[in-house]
Amino acid sequence: MADQGKVRVGLIGAGGIANGAHIPGYRAVSDQVDLVACADVNRATAERTARQQGIPGVYESYEEMLQKERLDAVSVCTPNRFHAPAVLAALRAGCHVLCEKPPAITAEEAREMERAASAAGRILTFGFMFRFSPEVQAARRYADAGALGDVYTGRVTAVRRRGIPSWGVFTNKELQGGGPLIDIGVHMLDAALYVMGYPEPASVTGVTHTRLGNQEPGIAPWGPWNYREYTVEDVCNALITFRNGAALLLETSFIANIEPMEEMNVRLSGTRAGVKFFPFSIFREEHGTIVNEQAAWQPGGNNHHKEVAHFVKCVRGEAEPVSTPAEAVKIQRIIEAIYASAAAGRSVEA
Ligand SMILES: NC(=O)c1ccc[n+]([C@@H]2O[C@H](COP(=O)([O-])OP(=O)(O)OC[C@H]3O[C@@H](n4cnc5c(N)ncnc54)[C@H](O)[C@@H]3O)[C@@H](O)[C@H]2O)c1
What we know:
Helix 1 (16-27) packs across helix 9 and helix 6 (134-144) packs parallel to helix 8. It contains 10 helices and 15 strands. The strands form 2 sheets. The chain has a 9-stranded mixed β-sheet with strand order 14-13-12-11-7-10-9-8-15. Helices cover 34% and strands 25% of the residues. The protein starts with 6 loop residues before the first strand and ends with a strand. By secondary structure, it is α/β, with parallel strands linked by helices. It folds into 2 domains: 3-127 and 305-322, NAD(P)-binding Rossmann-like Domain (Rossmann fold), CATH 3.40.50; 131-300 and 331-349, Dihydrodipicolinate Reductase, domain 2. The longest helix is centred in the last third of the chain and has 20 residues, at 325-344. Strand 1, helix 1 and strand 2 form a beta-alpha-beta unit. It binds nicotinamide-adenine-dinucleotide. Residues 12-18, 39-42, 45, 62, 77-80, 82, 100-101, 127, 129, 168-169, 183 line the site of nicotinamide-adenine-dinucleotide.
């Protein structure tokens, strides 16, 4: 680590999430971090970010940035397609890495990333910022304390009614690997698995539909998207089973004729109690009564900032990553299997 023991950080990809979450997150711990450089294949984006955010180093190539800047750590904030190559390059350069979610597109990429992190002896962790929410943290504490009992069933929801992004590359299967499942479903699925202790996946049955996103937009609250180049699913439903016998039902959409405009949630049921993450609720039987309990108060804070601050702590050797490469492999196995099952029209091993 360089001057005054500050962590020298670089950014790979300087678009929406880099500017909206990572840079403010690092700025919030600026006593521990020097944000020294950013790299973006789009030079104008890198220059704009550097100018607006006061970052001295600007690069078009992350390879060049990694070679020249003697970085301790990087955030990988590119479209999903480039997560694995950028992570591997950063690890090779001796950097600790915070990679945005999803970890990768395929399970094999995630395995390669896991092997590389282990060989390099560097931290590799992921942008699953919902893990830092007070609700998910509370659910995890209830589960760890045994208050839920044995968790064996649940529902994972990440739905939008008219929520196709009109910006970025979220509707491009080649660059993202898919639509709502790999973009927003992955957040709630990770949160559910985190609370369940990341059980070993067994098999999945998945169904996807593209029925509305590839049609000319009607009402588009997030702006009209390019429907002619819409190559991802609108909707995905899946049944995920685990080797411990547990099962999760997953429902995710960018666009569907459903009641809520948006819902991100997880409901888990165990032998002692059930839990809903948002708003945090516990369902159980007590003193001959069926009761619902809700948190009266939970701490606030920005989940992205907490995630970045936690990463910095891990780099400084003051904490252990909450999100690990081994978990990344499991979630990518599930996602890959859901898409494979949907394509094959039958259940597949995860
Ligand atoms: N945690 C969250 O809530 C959250 C929210 C939004 C996006 N994300 C994730 O962040 C990632 C980026 O999303 P975004 O919204 O910032 O997209 P974006 O399109 O706004 O930004 C991505 C940037 O990466 C650059 N880029 C592309 N290929 C590159 C390469 N090979 N090397 C360097 N730069 C490259 C692009 O030019 C672009 O500026 C995605 O993986 C997405 O899933 C996470």
